[in-house]
Design a protein that fits this description.
Radius of gyration: 19 Å
Distance between the termini: 54 Å
CATH topology: Spore Coat Polysaccharide Biosynthesis Protein SpsA, Chain A
Subcellular location: Golgi apparatus membrane
Oligomer: single chain
CATH class: Alpha Beta
Protein name: Hexosyltransferase
Order of helices and strands: EHEEEHHEHEHEEHEEEEHHEEEHH
GO biological process, one term: protein O-linked glycosylation
Family: Belongs to the glycosyltransferase 31 family.
Number of helices: 10
Keywords: Glycosyltransferase, Golgi apparatus, Membrane, Signal-anchor, Transferase, Transmembrane, Transmembrane helix
Length: 328
């Protein structure tokens, strides 16, 4: 990752751009294969990012933009195709069919030229892929999610929700909006919604993928945060989180940093909803996805590779909750 410290920069925003460039960018729809650079500014580093590819899509009239974190590998492509065949399909998602949500993928850069050529072709074929210049890796996931938030602010800032989803998560946007109509979610507050974790121990082993140094975060336990495989940010939360990043050292554990540390700094609410399931590869009790009234409440379920993705989606989408709740 290219970084550059700048202790004399007293800017009050976390993503640094020239005002004229920002104005020009926000006045137009995204263009194909451009090289527009922005910067993600943190207390200890500044990360330059280029939009390498932006789809030509208009967010006008949408209620949510779902941005799925994926990767440029062959397996990543298989995962994206499985998602396109399920909840991103207008055949199976009413919120996609009626343009309530816009669903996109975000992918980092790879030194593998063959993979990137394939991503190039895929992006032009489907028109649903965002590509950024930072290398695609787990440790860079935090940069991808900040870029997704920047995308929302640049092109979709009037859209009520940003759905952050990993590509091994089976997701049900229709259920989310059913629950919103019942008052479970509120677009007017600054909040993150998902499965919240409390008192998670900070990982200090440098070999661990979740490693955090004492310089990055000195406490022994992380603050309450919203689990990373799938969570939802409201449009009021996003600029607060982006703006607060410059005052904190960059923590590479994406969900902890964004929905925990920065959420506390900005008083963004972390609201737990039980039907965001984390690491749930075997479905032994589908009744737990149903309400007492016999309605399917499942929003997301994690840890499904492309091989079982389609089957799992259709099984869960077609649960007979009215029958299940009658069973003892």
């Amino acid at each position: 990752m290219k970084t550059a410290k700048d202790k004399n920069d007293n800017s009050t925003i976390s993503i640094i751009q020239e005002e004229e460039e920002t104005a020009k960018l926000e006045e137009q729809e995204p263009k194909l294969w451009i090289n527009h650079t922005f910067s993600l500014k943190f207390n200890d580093t500044t990360v330059p990012v280029e939009w390498r590819y932006l789809p030509e899509i208009n967010c006008a009239g949408r209620r949510a933009v779902a941005i799925v974190s994926s990767d440029p590998s062959d397996k990543g492509r298989l995962a994206r195709d499985a998602i396109r065949d399920t909840w991103m399909s207008s055949t199976y998602s009413g919120t996609v069919k009626n343009n309530t949500i816009l669903a996109l993928f975000i992918i980092g850069w790879s030194a593998n030229e063959t993979n990137m050529m394939d991503v190039h072709k895929e992006a032009e074929q489907f028109g649903d892929v965002i590509v950024i210049s930072q290398p695609d890796s787990y440790r860079n996931l935090v940069i991808k999610v900040f870029s997704a938030m920047k995308y929302h602010q640049s092109f979709c800032k009037n859209v009520d929700y940003l759905f952050k989803v990993d590509h091994d998560v089976v997701f049900f946007p229709d259920h989310f909006f059913n629950l919103e109509r019942e008052g479970y979610f509120h677009s007017t507050e600054a909040a993150s919604y998902g499965n919240t974790w409390k008192k998670a121990v900070v990982e200090r082993d440098p070999k661990n993928r979740w490693y955090t140094s004492y310089t990055q975060y000195p406490k022994d336990f992380y603050p309450t945060f919203t689990s990373g495989p799938a969570y939802i940010l409201t449009k009021k939360a996003i600029p607060k989180l982006l703006g607060a990043a410059q005052y904190r050292n960059l923590v590479m554990v994406e969900d902890v940093f964004i929905t925990g540390i920065l959420a506390i700094d900005t008083k963004v609410k972390r609201i737990s909803y039980p039907n965001f399931f984390y690491k749930y590869p075997r479905i032994t009790n589908p009744k737990k996805f149903c309400s007492k009234e016999g309605k399917n409440r499942l929003i997301s379920i994690h840890k499904y590779a492309f091989r079982r993705y389609r089957t799992t989606f259709h099984y869960l989408k077609n649960l007979n909750c009215k029958k299940l709740v009658k069973q003892r």
